[in-house]
């Protein structure tokens, strides 16, 4: 929006999404006080303004707005629009950006529809025949993301998979329908705790939380499901592999989750024979075992991998601190989280013409003063008398309707403040909305508090107009304006509220952001081997995928997220949301190459990832300070952002020997490994870094070291020649031998990588090896090294 000048009439101009098509130009004008009887007069004024400003025949007025706002929309050219911008009385003009309906935006952003899914309705390239298992909080069986439509050509029963459907409360036998191919629940561990709440801890595969439904639909939800929240259509949702089948293993309950139930669920999933196992749950801290990867959780994942099941694991949500990854083992794909280029920008318009950007999926507010509402600070609306304590919870946080004067706040936009209750978790946004609805707010503004600093805000749907202002500097602009427009008596009590504001439309997506950016919450490497966090020569996380503000299926019970109660869709963030992206993409690869091992699939995902964003610049990461960015490293993004269209044709892959890797770990007790795995250490690598992974990590490089890798061609039709290039880490010289090679279809090639310290560094440094083939395959191998001594 552009403020042109002060005038009796204030105009806002919105235009259509292209630079050359101004057919949707919208001009909004408001009187000082808009009254219904002025409707005809306003329409005549619109026509007169257009006739006096624009050339005859050069425009077409589409609508006159004359009730809540005074304005009109017009179809015209850029030249005529520029004339209109300069017309007397015009204050604001903006080109219509349009509203794009692509709810789970990540399929398109990752290139699935135009790449991997090409012809998916005919060729079934979207995961047909693949079963993805989900160990989580269950599933909402009535959700359209999991509906079975026989006209879509699904087989009613998967011929090789045991279709067991455990009935129970809210989960009838018909819940397993061909899309949900099997559903079980595991509760022995939860029952043993003795603290189940019968009203929410439902003993069936039904999802009372929403998390399991969100994860399952992100990976394998049906294609093109309309997403409607609070009556607003946000577009259509789709899973990464919409033709894949879903096997549900509920092991987490709202009030309790035990490793016992999780392990039982993993075990059953392995027995059932899922192709992909998704673990967006699990321990968020290392076990007390001597080796992190010999915890029971990791051992079970190893057995899954040995059974031919690809395990995808959330990396954890304890970032941005280092050494926080919850994925330690090479046999599980640890997934970090990032955003996409989509945002939902919200705005607060103050009476002085200033615009403050904020967050909140909210309809706009409307008021009777110039289209704006009275702006009131909550503490200035507190009742002088009343039986309630004068604490921040009652004074500032809008948590108690009985503390506010309904005469003052009705039809006002009320400023509620982040204070002690929000810092300790006792206050919440749903309670603010309840207060607003009870007292008839026109809307609310939830602002940061300088005493607590900036806060992190996610885009939540608000059923009344509302906006969050998470930055202290922006909050101060609002408060400064408010104070200048507010009259007080000698006691500091407000006598007249002159401040005005409008909450703008916050539900329309924008697709212009720099992305990906590694999310602040996403857990980081380096990987470590024990509770003392001794670094391990193995890269974690493995890969990066969208995990911030992801639309997907939800459960109306929403026991853990009251703000989403009653909704069938949730916009949620976490590495839990990133992991199913990788699981679904892995299903697409598995469908195309049924004989590929889990190692080959995970290798294809990693070696084809990118470390550059949508603007061709290195990926950035959110840092320690809120709203700050720094260049991302392999410990933030792993191999990089997944690229499905490249992963289905990787050229070369790596395969791994995990038993030899375990036996080569420092200070390893062979008896401990035998006890845990059931196999003896017949062979070990010289160093753990010799594990044949598509990355190379050395946590303490002294002098020089030779590391070996073996690649296998998965090109079926021709020989390919590769040239090796190196981007060395700072302080390390890297040489690859042979520097080039030709490999036959299904052939293998040994590579010898020599790393030599040239300058000691006080931290890990990052680089990569790039193998470029003449058939357009590009294989990236991340290098992460800490050079500690030149000899």
TrEMBL record:
- The answer, when asked if Nucleotidyltransferase is one of the entry's keywords, is no
Q: Where is the Subtilisin-like protease fibronectin type-III domain?
A: 690-785
Identify the residues that the record assigns to the Inhibitor I9 domain, covering every copy: 38-98
Tell me which domain of life the UniProt entry assigns to the organism this sequence originates from.
Eukaryota
Compartments where found: Secreted
Q: Which residues form the active site?
A: 136, 211, 576
Q: Locate the Peptidase S8/S53 domain: which residues?
A: 127-613
The protein's matches in Pfam families, at most eight in alphabetical order, are given as:
fn3_6 (PF17766), Inhibitor_I9 (PF05922), Peptidase_S8 (PF00082)
Alphabetical list of InterPro entries matching this protein? Peptidase_S8/S53_dom, Peptidase_S8/S53_dom_sf, Peptidase_S8_Asp-AS, Peptidase_S8_His-AS, Peptidase_S8_Ser-AS, Peptidase_S8_subtilisin-rel, Peptidases_S8_3, S8pro/Inhibitor_I9
Q: Mind telling me what this protein is named?
A: Putative PA-domain containing subtilase family protein
Parts forming coiled coils: none
Asked if the keyword Glycoprotein belongs to this entry, the reply reads yes
User: Which key words are in the record?
Assistant: Glycoprotein, Hydrolase, Protease, Serine protease, Signal
The Swiss-Prot or TrEMBL record describes its family as follows: Belongs to the peptidase S8 family.
GO biological process, alphabetically ordered: plant epidermis development; proteolysis
What gene is behind this protein? ALE1
Q: Name one GO molecular function term.
A: serine-type endopeptidase activity
According to its record, what are the GO cellular component terms?
Answer: extracellular region
